[in-house]
Amino acid sequence: MEIKKLTPPLTDDDVMNLKSGDNVLLTGVIYCARDAAHKKLVELMEKGEELPLDLQGQVIYYVGPTPAKPGQAIGSAGPTTSGRMDAYTPQMLEHGMKACIGKGSRSQAVKDALQKHKGVYLASVGGAGALLSKAIKKVEIVAYPELGPEAIQKLEVEDFPATVINDAYGNDLYEEGVKNYRVG
Amino acid sequence: MREIDAQSISNKVAEMCENANLYLGDDVLKALKDSYEKEESPTGKEVLKQILQNIDIAGDESIPLCQDTGYAVFFVEWGQEVLLNGGTLDEAINEGVKKGYQEGYLRKSIVKDPVNRDENTGDNTPAVIHTEMVPGDRVTIHFAPKGGGSENMSAVKMLKPSDGVEGIVNFVVEHVKNSGPNPCPPIVVGVGVGGTFDKVAQLAKKALLRPLGEPHPEKFYADLEKRLLEEINKLGIGPQGFGGRTTALAVHVESYPAHIASMPAAVNINCHVSRHQSVTL
């Protein structure tokens, strides 16, 4: 099986080269943010104020890890349900985000925004938090430390595995993959 | 009368909290390995490979299997000839949860108020505790940490008696279909049938505690479990919803007598990290 290597920040070409069903490995910097951080970012966007990080070409990972033990970069760190971020994702894409990683289906508005702004939605294996934590080498808080486990953090990753669910062409692995194996 | 100290319950509970989040039972492991061998979808096979690797890493390096270390759910069978000293059962269990989640570096996932959500209880308490008095002088505690993603894919339906077994099958299969990738397949499906609105939900959860591969003792329900598993695996959802043959590892049904006017049914789903531990004191 072919595996595509990605090194964020991503360009339009990187995104257009990805198809629903592709397996990828990410190396470099990605950012983690979930519900509370998204809410804060979108509030700033609506007020036209500066964001605490430049989203251009960036990859956002939806994760709420377990506490790191002494000597660990991060605890168990698998993806959380992406649907909770649907309300914020179109604006994140409009402000330059190129990819997000989570698990579970997205709304039609998110799929449309991925096509419009040339972005992709990736999924990692939900429930594989120990395995995925091994690909995260370093963690640093970049914004909203007061949110505790929901703060925006910079993650240095090496060969972080994910699969393309929604590409920029309107394809959806959750629909097409299932069709290939449905019986009756 | 046999006496048990609350502290010994707390210590046992703390141990269960840590172990359940690091090690899966042999039943789940076997079901996952069998699925890996059988899965036809290359993407699905890759997912199952990562799931099996995850189990090895979690055990070898003491990293929780999943970052969602769950709501702490307990089913307790308390022998009525046993006297508890030094606190109530709920206090003893919650003390154990607090200790286990703190010392095990597990995530504290409980907010104090379900609507105004800005305050975490800080120690993953309170636990959800179902207690049943049973004959004898033994105490059995079943523990199942329950992840939010799969718990959100639950449903109760008050079916009509005339809907019959077809009504149950349609409800369960349609519900799993609509849940798609969200509960982190391959899943374990707990089904409750009968009782009342509240009872049937509890039955569905209790069904998840049964070891995988152990059918219902009554033939009718064992056959229903088999049929539901076949129908669900025809959906094609596959590992993580990427498409494939393995959508569910097992379906367990629990039943209870029903009112002459009712046939309640409920579905509760566990993800592939189907964590359950039991201890008898």
Account of the protein in words:
The complex is a heterodimer of chains A (184) and B (281). With 184 residues, chain A is α/β, with parallel strands linked by helices. Chain A has one domain (3-181): fumarase (Alpha-Beta Barrel). Chain A has 6 helices and 7 strands. By secondary structure, chain B is an alpha/beta fold. Chain B has 2 domains: 2-20 and 65-146, no CATH class; 149-275, 60s Ribosomal Protein L30, Chain: A, CATH 3.30.1330. In chain B, the strands form 3 sheets. In chain B, strands 4-2-5-10 form a 4-stranded mixed sheet. A 4-stranded mixed sheet of chain B has the order 6-9-7-8. The longest helix of chain B has 20 residues, at 42-61. The mean pLDDT of chain B is 96. The chains are: A alpha/beta (184), B alpha/beta (281).
Radius of gyration of chain A from CA coordinates: 16 Å
On the 0 to 100 scale, the average pLDDT of chain B is: 96
Helix content of chain A: 25-40%
Q: For the report, how would you describe the main beta sheet of chain B?
A: 4 strands, mixed
Q: Write down the secondary-structure element order of chain A.
A: EHEHEHEHEHEEH
List the SSEs and their pairings.
The complex is a heterodimer of chains A (184) and B (281).
Chain A: E1 3-6, H1 12-16, E2 23-32, H2 35-47, E3 59-61, H3 89-94, E4 99-102, H4 108-117, E5 120-123, H5 129-133, E6 136-143, E7 152-166, H6 173-181
Parallel strand pairs in A: 1-2, 2-3, 3-4, 4-5
Antiparallel strand pairs in A: 2-7, 5-7, 6-7
Chain B: E1 2-5, H1 6-22, H2 26-38, H3 42-61, E2 71-79, E3 82-85, H4 89-103, E4 128-134, E5 139-146, H5 148-151, E6 155-159, H6 164-179, E7 187-195, H7 197-207, H8 219-233, E8 248-258, E9 263-270, E10 277-280
Parallel strand pairs in B: 1-3, 2-4, 7-8
Antiparallel strand pairs in B: 2-5, 5-10, 6-9, 7-9
